[in-house]
Amino acid sequence: MIAAIIFAIHLVAATYAFASKAKSGGISEGFLALAFMTIIFSVGWTIATMTANLLFEPEGFAEWFNRDTISLSLVTIGEVVFYALLLKTRMGTGQESDGFRPE
Q1: Which of 37, 32, 47 minimizes the C-alpha distance to 13?
Q2: pTM to 2 decimals?
Q3: H-only helix segments in 1-103
Q4: Long-range residue pairs from 8-17, CB within 8 A, at least 24 positions apart, any chain
Q5: What angle do CA 99, 72, 40 make, to 5 degrees?
Q6: How do residues 29-51 score in pLDDT, each as one tens digit?
């Protein structure tokens, strides 16, 4: 259940990124934002899974919070930090603060 909620959060974020970039820069910009988020998620999930495999038993902390859910939680926390820093950096430089395409 937690995994479904995390995937739903990612779906909402991807929809928002696509819609906001497609509105401001065209449909190709929307697809670029979607591709960027997909790459960040897939690489982050791979790294978080390797880390969780090293640190936690397969059972995790509870039946509903196993090692896979822990890795999804880690990647979500990492993405929140990454996107917050990206947006903060772009806002501090006076550039457009979309935060979905690195310069």
Answers
A1: 37
A2: 0.76
A3: 2-25, 27-55, 67-92
A4: 9/76, 10/37, 10/41, 10/76, 13/37, 14/38, 17/100
A5: 30
A6: 999 999 999 999 999 999 999 99
